[in-house]
Each structure stands twice: as structure tokens, then as C-alpha cells.
Amino acid sequence: MSHPNFELMRHDVTFPLYVEVDEIYNLACPASPIHYQRDPVQTTKTSVHGAINMLGLAKRVKAKILQASTSEVYGDPEVHPQPESYWGKVNPVGIRSCYDEGKRCAETLFFDYWRQHQLEIKVVRIFNTYGPHMHPRDGRVVSNFIVQALKGEDITIYGDGAQTRSFCYVNDLLEAMVRAMNTGSEFTGPVNIGNPTEFTMLELAELVLKLTKSKSRIVNQPLPQDDPRQRKPDIGLAKAALGWEPKVNLEEGLRETISYFKKLI
């Protein structure tokens, strides 16, 4: 905040923005189901109108622009692990559609601006990310489990806990995004950014209990609609094109995240 070249602006990306910039990282959109389902129309607007406005800005000032897309574009995948060439299996009318289809439409816009206006674009598909500075009521599984464990509350698992996710520590993610932005104009993506080590929800809960030394119980609740059964990135392209792969394993990353939440709560 104190850096002389840093300026913080408050702006809604569903409206045009007029600034002079060289690079744009478009991360605008709530990513947790409880937040993006609270106002699904606004979620879609954030992804779609937001992409149009940020692409318009990039076109005006001839800036490079990176889109933070998501593994949710793959939906409930029938291909495992998920390569960038997989088109996905997404419900277009479900309760998760505002986020899934909003992000898919944003990718469409990015590639049409690239083809039609020769805009320099980078599209990264982010798989589950976690780390310090997550909001305690973020609603995502890592923060949920840690907060519940530290407070001694029941740890809530949806379904039988056999569904899988792959968790990428925030520092690894940021490194990959900067590397993607710094590629030449010939590289557009989409490129998967995530940790290919796969964990079931039950394994994650048990690891959080072990690291927090919590006495919390694990309880099961019904599985939400369209919740993907498995998620694991194929990061072959990230390795080849960005020279990137994650360095922080889940236990190491969880220790850092737990330490942050301990101070917070």
C-alpha cells in the first residue's frame, strides 16, 4: 500500500474501466459456491460483462491480459485427469451454472478477441487453491475444515467423502500466473494450473484433524447438486510451456494455512 507506484481503486468490472496499464490480470468473480450462488445473476455478469469490459480495456491500451479461469469449466468430468483438450461435462441450467458457464463464456470471449482483434491473451484454468489470507467464512473446503477443527466444531463432509480434489498452495499458483503472463505472444493457453496430487475429502479432513490436534468429529451431510466427483489437473502443458510445477505439498501448505487461521480466530 505504501509503494509509490501502487494505486488501489474500487471498481465494479461489470462497468467499463478507463486506466492506462500494460498488463491486466482478471481475477474478478466469487469462486466459492455459497458466495457465487447468493446472487447468481450478478455472478454471471461478473464473468461475462467483466470479461467484455476488461478485454475492451486491453484492446484500447494494447495491454496483455490474463484470465483467471477455473477447473469448473470441466464440470463433472468423464476424463481423468483433465487435460486442456477436454471440453467438459457441464450442466447449463444447474445451481452451479452461473459460475461454470460464466467462466466458459469468458474463455470464449478471450479467444474471440484474440482471433478477431489480435489481442495478446493468456488463459489459466485454476484448480483448488488455498493458503493464508483466505476468509474464515470463504465456504471452500480447506478453510471450512480448518476453522471447524480449530473451533472444535463438527467437520462437515458432503456425501461419503470419496470425491476428490487437488489442492494448489497460493504461492505456487501466483508463480504460475506470472510465468504465463510473461510468455511470448504465441502462447495463449488455456493452461491448467494446479497440484496433480489428488486427495479425497475424507483424507483432507483427517489430515486437518491431525495437524490441528483437534477432537472434532467428522459428520456427513447430503451431497450438493452437481458437485464434481473427481478433480485432478493434467499439468503437462504447464511444465512444458511455463517450466512450472508446484513445489509445496499439501501438509506443508496446510501448516502455513492453519498457522494463519490460529492467529485469526
Describe this protein's structure.
The chain has one domain: Rossmann fold, CATH 3.40.50. The protein is 39% helix and 14% strand. By secondary structure, the protein is of the alpha/beta class. Strands 1-2-3-8 form a 4-stranded parallel beta sheet, with helices on both faces. The protein has a two-stranded parallel sheet with strand order 4-7. Helix 3 (97-117) links the parallel strand 2 and strand 3 (121-126).
Number of domains: 1
Relative helix content: 25-40%
Give the termini distance in whole angstroms.
25 Å
CATH overall fold name: Rossmann fold
Order of helices and strands: EHHEHEEHEEEHEEHEHH
Give me the number of helical elements.
8
Structural class: alpha/beta
The CATH fourth-level homologous superfamily: NAD(P)-binding Rossmann-like Domain
Which geometry do the CA atoms define? globular
Strand line-up across the major sheet: 1-2-3-8
Low-confidence stretches: none
Rg for CA atoms = 19 Å
Number of strands: 10
**The first-level CATH class name:** Alpha Beta
From the structure above, extract its key features.
two-stranded parallel ribbon; single chain; alpha/beta; 265 residues; Rossmann fold; four-stranded parallel sheet; 8 helices
